[in-house]
Structure formats: C-alpha cells, structure tokens
Design a protein that fits this description.
The strands form three sheets. A five-stranded mixed sheet has the order 2-10-9-4-5, with no helix packed on it. Strands 1-3-6 form a three-stranded antiparallel sheet, with no helix packed on it. β7 (113-114) and β8 form a beta hairpin. It contains no helices and eleven strands. It is globular and about 50 Å long. The protein has one domain: Immunoglobulin-like (Sandwich), CATH 2.60.40.10. It has strands at residues 32-40, 43-45, 50-58, 64-74, 85-94, 99-106, 113-114, 118-120, 123-130, 144-152, 156-157. GO terms for molecular function: beta-glucosidase activity.
C-alpha cells in the first residue's frame, strides 16, 4: 500500500456522508438539556490548554446516564484534517430534575496536525459539546452546543512546547 491518506477510508473524512452508527448512537429513558458552554480562555497561545465547562440537566421523569462528548473542528488548517475530532467524553449519571456542571481540559496536543511531524497551528477552532456528534440525525433529540475559540502565535512543532 503506497497511499496512506485516510480520505475516503474512514467516516471522519467522508465529507458530508454520515456514518450509519456514529459514536454515541442510542436512546435513553430520559431527556437531557445542555447549556452554559464556556471556553476559557477564549483566545489562547499556541501551546496552551483550553478549559471547557458545560451544564447538563436531566429534564426527563427518570434518573439517567448521558455520555457527554466534546468534538473539535479546525476552521482552517495547512493540511487535511477530519471534519471534527473527538477530544473528550465522560459518562455522567444525573438524577431526574437535577443538573451537573462538568469541566474538561482540551490539551494543546489534541489540536496538533500531522505535517511531516506533529505541529500546532494558530487559527480559529470550534468546540462542540453534547450527547452526540455535531449534525447527527437521531430518533431521540439531543442538543449539541458550539463555541469558537482562537489560538495565537506562530506555528511550531508540538515537541517545541
């Protein structure tokens, strides 16, 4: 095999075609609502980590568990990248009518792109938080929140941070 590109070989690179059973596919006995997605800081240096918080509320009549998923999208990149990349997830049990505030850390290395070596690049990124992939069509509704953040500084090798 001489062509190692992933384009057209995995659903992350298929363009607009969605996978049949994406990560997080399934149903629940209750409903959840996401709110208050906060990215801190909203603009960070190229080697810095991002702190993310989101509130998950169980709006249904039963106690339930939700898999909270965070996805990252590069708005521009010097090399081909996935439509979005799973960067964190956590299974959370929430009692009916209650809420949980969750915090995550998105490491700088999770923004790295492969360009003969792992590199960090400045630019604009979108972070998605929800119970499914962005744009996923499911039978049970699930919100996906999004927020943008910026990365400043010069591109540099990941090992240089």
């Amino acid at each position: 095999m001489e062509n190692y590109t992933m384009e057209g070989r995995t659903y992350r690179y298929y363009g607009q075609e969605a996978p049949l059973y994406p990560f997080g596919y399934g149903l629940s006995y209750t409903t959840f609502r996401y709110r208050d997605l906060v990215l801190s800081p909203p603009v960070l240096p190229v080697c810095a980590n991002l702190t993310v918080s989101v509130v998950l509320e169980n709006t249904g009549p039963r106690d339930g568990e939700e898999v909270v998923q965070l996805y990252l999208r590069w708005e521009q990149s010097s090399v081909p990248v996935p439509r979005w990349q799973l960067v964190a997830f956590r299974r959370v049990a929430v009692l009916a009518g209650r809420e949980a505030k969750l915090s995550f850390q998105v490491l700088a290395e999770q923004r790295a792109v492969w360009a003969r070596d792992w590199r960090l690049e400045p630019g604009t990124f979108t972070l998605f938080a929800g119970g499914q992939q962005p744009g996923q069509r499911v039978r049970a509704p699930s919100e996906v929140l999004s927020a943008r953040f910026g990365v400043t500084g010069a591109a540099r090798p990941l090992r240089g941070c």
